C-alpha cells in the first residue's frame, strides 16, 4: 500500500481529491495530511512508496515542481468539484465580523462579501480547513472554507459559493 501526501488538516479539498483519485484508479492507499505541500515534499524524501497530490491553484506549486525535478515528476492531472466553498463564522451577523481567515488561493472570495463590511481584515492560513479551525478558536471572526470544515468546526454558514471545478496534480517520486 502506498501513501498520498497532500495538504491538511482534515477536510481539505486536497484530502477529498486524494480519496477521489484512489477511487477512480481503483487503488488502496493512505492519505497523509501535512500543514503545507512543502512539508509534504520533505516527508516524501523519506518515504519509499508514495506520491504528492497538489492543487493547481496552490500558491507556489511551480516552486515545488521546479525545485524538485530530481525527486518528483508530474504524472497525472484531473478535475474534480471541490467541497462547497463558504463564507462561515462563529457569528450569525455580518456586522460583528472584523477579521476573515482564508487560504491564499480562495482569498479573493472575501471581496464577494467585503461590501457588507469594508473594514474587514483578512488573515491568511495554510489551508481552508485551517481557516475554519482558527475561526472556531477565535483567531478570526469568519473564514473562507469548505462546507465539510465549517460543519466539523460548528460554524454558521453566511454565504455558500458552491463547489468549484478544480484541477489537481499527481507527482510521482522518481526512484
UniProtKB/TrEMBL annotation:
Domain Prephenate dehydratase residues, every copy: 4-159
Q: Which GO terms describe its molecular function?
A: prephenate dehydratase activity
One GO biological process this protein is involved in is: L-phenylalanine biosynthetic process
Provide the protein name: Prephenate dehydratase domain-containing protein
Amino acid at each position: 500500500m502506498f501513501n498520498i501526501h497532500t495538504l491538511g488538516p482534515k477536510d481539505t479539498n486536497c484530502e477529498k481529491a486524494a480519496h477521489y483519485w484512489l477511487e477512480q484508479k481503483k487503488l488502496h492507499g493512505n492519505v497523509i495530511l501535512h500543514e503545507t505541500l512543502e512539508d509534504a515534499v520533505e516527508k516524501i524524501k523519506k518515504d519509499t512508496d508514495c506520491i504528492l497530490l497538489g492543487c493547481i491553484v496552490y500558491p507556489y506549486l511551480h516552486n515545488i515542481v521546479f525545485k524538485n525535478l530530481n525527486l518528483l515528476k508530474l504524472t497525472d492531472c484531473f478535475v474534480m468539484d471541490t467541497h462547497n466553498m463558504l463564507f462561515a463564522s462563529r457569528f450569525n451577523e455580518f456586522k460583528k465580523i472584523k477579521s476573515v481567515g482564508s487560504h491564499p488561493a480562495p482569498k479573493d472570495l472575501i471581496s464577494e462579501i467585503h461590501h457588507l463590511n469594508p473594514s474587514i481584515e483578512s488573515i491568511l492560513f495554510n489551508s481552508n480547513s485551517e481557516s475554519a479551525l482558527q475561526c472556531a478558536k477565535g483567531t478570526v471572526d469568519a473564514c473562507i472554507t469548505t462546507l465539510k470544515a465549517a460543519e466539523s468546526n460548528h460554524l454558521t454558514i453566511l454565504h455558500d459559493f458552491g463547489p468549484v471545478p478544480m484541477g489537481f496534480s499527481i507527482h510521482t517520486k522518481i526512484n
